[in-house]
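Sequence and structure are no longer studied apart. As an example, we show below a sequence and the tokens encoding its fold:
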Amino acid sequence: MTPVPRALDGPAAPAPPSRLTPWLVWSNVLMAAGAAGWTVCTAAVLRLPVDPVVVGQAFLLTAVFYLRDRMAPTEQSADRVTMPGRTAWLAAHAVALRRLGRVLAALAALTAVLRPACLPWLLGGLGLAAGYTVQWIPHRGGRVSWKQLPAAKEVLVALLWTVVTVLVPVAVTHGPWDGRTALTAAALWCLIATQILVNDLRDLDEDRRRGTRSLPVLIGPLPARLTGCLLCTAAALAALPLDSPALALTALATAVAVAGYRRGQDARWRPWIEAQGVLAAALTLLG
């Protein structure tokens, strides 16, 4: 019998995760390391000193808020469909993860005390992050979270990452607020927005069902992939005047991810997607 082809972005049985997946990916360690990596990349591009406290702060804040997001009941109900393995693992380790989250939050607060110049930026960003899944915005007789606004997941979440990984390091080290900093922030925003877009390709069906208007929901998966490739192209072009081969190569790797990602192979792609900032830092240090 001739097999019936399925759509490139249609449902598929997920590939089994590796043994390291729960501890590196589902725990948010790899994503948090990616945020720390981006701060290292920022320091290199802008010729700033690498501040270990700022690097640690990026790691801690990312770990805390992604853990908070993934442990929220509303998110777990959606993740049971899109990421059942991760949801089951989080539920099995819920008590330990909540305790870990409190410890990480306390350490993150300590970094803000040690580097008070970060506070104005973080307070603004934390306000947005706190309302990420809370339904508080009036909309058509009801209320929605800003996550459910059109393309907000890509635009605003990437903006929060850019605050933590570019604007905070510049503020703490009293770096220049000039065109080079703006170009670095724009390049990182493009790459991080593409990373988030790949996640939204995975969540397409559930986002559509829940009324979350991510970019793939709004324009479809293929145009969304093209948009991601264009964002990577913009980041690569920005890397030229910044004289940063690391940014250019990370843009290439991110373009490969957004073009090649398939939901049925999420376990294979997931570490590469979430290690985006780690790759950028490694390329920066090797360069």
In short: Confidence is low (pLDDT under 50) at residues 1-16. Strands lie at 137-139, 142-144.
